[in-house]
Write a structure and sequence with these properties.
Number of strands: 12
Strand content: 15-25%
Radius of gyration: 42 Å
Order of helices and strands: HEEEHEEEHEHEEHHHHEHHHEEHHH
Helix content: 40-55%
Structural class: alpha/beta
Number of helices: 14
Distance between the termini: 176 Å
Shape: elongated
Largest sheet: 8 strands, mixed
Length: about 450
């Protein structure tokens, strides 16, 4: 009896050469100009070759991963090469589906990825009307308003105690406007003489200084982080929008995922899908298409690390909530499937797989977050608020000017009427005196 398992003992394939096929344009494996393998799976395959004493002879490069054609009753792409016996293994990454499991063997899942909708970055930016209020939470804003009202009430008692004889309503309005001015970094016209009022105002100034610093920092952060208006945020909203077309890489499992599904959402997605002949052959071609057509979305996978993809424009990735298992495939009932799976399991156990996943690759993607200057649309709300304040102040000034002018006219008329009356009385009195004098003279003559 032996202590080790079967595949612990039979790990040496004695220089076996396996016929391999790869998919052109695959982000997981590719052939460099010097003939060596590159991509995410390249280091993993090198470790398998060293551990199992095996090598891969690339006998063909196909354009498609492979899907079932119900009309011709045949498979296409790399799966057709394995199904017909022309190759033993495909080194590219394949999605595990039930239909493929009937004709090929899968290795253990090497990685798990999210399925995403990729679209060209929208050119419109969201006008952040609420950015000036998102700097603080609702509880902080409520606390600030409470402090403003409470301080106005406290100042009323302090001023009344210090001998100021005014109505409580007028004092409350004056205090409220003073505190609002302090919140806007304005000073006081007359600083109080009493120590109690000085301490209260000084404490308020300190509080406003801290709040102003925190508000300014948060507001700058909101204004400098540009937000795009996305037309949709999920597959459901993508279907509801209806203005975008959907595309997948030709020959991939994603087309059959929607075409053969009974889900109502999948049927709606198929109505937006491009024709099979018009689908892109590679991910590189798919990215070029969405950069040319702003109304095209690609159903793709999320790469954990940068891959050899040159994206000619900025793109946005939207999570669909679907998870995908990626593995290599071998011909059905291949005698070496369990040997390779055993070594992959050991790679997972001893940490080699984690090291390979975290290793950097030769070329980085240009799909990076780029810092941009703040656009006018992000500060247009401030400009509009300033304009509204100027217009409102001007209107109030005109109304006040009209009211005061009208009051002055009334007052002048009120003061003018007694003068008219007194002058009339003087004239009448003078005439009466003259009449009395004449009458007195006439009396003497008689």
């Amino acid at each position: 009896m032996v202590t080790n398992s079967l595949y612990d003992r039979r790990y040496n394939l004695q220089g076996l050469i396996m016929k391999a096929v790869i998919v052109k344009g695959s982000s997981f494996i590719n052939v460099k100009k010097n003939g060596k393998l590159g991509g995410i799976f390249s280091e993993l395959l090198n470790q398998i070759c060293i551990t199992l004493n095996v090598s891969f002879d690339i006998v063909s490069e196909v354009e498609e991963f492979g899907r079932w054609n119900p009309n011709k009753k045949t498979w296409s792409g790399a799966i057709a090469e394995l199904y017909s016996g022309r190759a033993d293994i495909s080194l590219s990454g394949f999605s595990i589906t039930s239909a493929r499991l009937n004709v090929v063997d899968f290795t253990l899942p090497i990685t798990y990825t999210k399925n995403l909708l990729v679209i060209q970055e929208p050119e419109k930016f969201g006008i952040k009307w609420s950015s000036h209020f998102l700097t603080f939470t609702n509880s902080v804003w409520i606390a600030i308003l409470g402090i403003l009202i409470a301080s106005s009430i406290v100042f009323i008692f302090l001023k009344i105690h210090n001998g100021i004889d005014r109505k409580i309503g007028c004092l409350f309005i004056d205090n409220f406007l003073e505190i609002c001015g302090i919140l806007c970094q304005q000073g006081l016209a007359d600083f109080p003489v009493r120590s109690s009022l000085r301490i209260a105002y000084f404490s308020l100034f300190l509080l406003v200084t801290v709040l102003s610093a925190a508000y300014s920092a948060a507001l700058i952060s909101f204004l400098t982080s540009t937000t795009h208006i996305l037309p949709f945020h999920s597959l459901e909203s993508f279907v509801e929008d209806g203005t975008y077309q959907l595309a997948v890489v030709r020959g991939s499992a994603y087309y059959d995922k929607f075409a053969n599904s009974r889900d109502p959402l999948a049927k709606k997605l198929m109505k937006l899908m491009l024709e099979d002949k018009k689908l892109p052959l590679t991910e590189q071609e798919a990215y070029k298409r969405i950069c040319k057509n702003q109304k095209l979305a690609i159903y793709s996978i999320q790469h954990n690390k940068p891959v050899n993809l040159e994206i000619p424009c900025n793109v946005v990735r939207i999570d669909t909530g679907h998870v995908n298992s990626i593995a290599m495939i071998l011909s059905k009932h291949n005698p070496f499937t369990n040997v390779i799976n055993f070594q992959l399991q050991k790679f997972f156990a001893n940490g080699i797989m984690s090291r390979l996943k975290n290793s950097p690759f030769d070329k980085k993607s240009n799909d990076m977050i780029k810092h941009q200057p703040v656009p006018v649309t992000s500060v247009i709300s401030l400009l509009i608020l300033i304009l509204i304040g100027i217009i409102l102040s001007t209107c109030i000034l005109i109304i006040e000017k009209f009211i005061f002018t009208h009051k002055r006219k009334k007052l002048s008329m009120v003061h003018h009427i007694p003068l008219i009356k007194s002058s009339t009385f003087y004239v009448k009195g003078k005439k009466s005196l003259r009449n009395i004098t004449k009458h007195h003279v006439n009396c003497k003559c008689y």
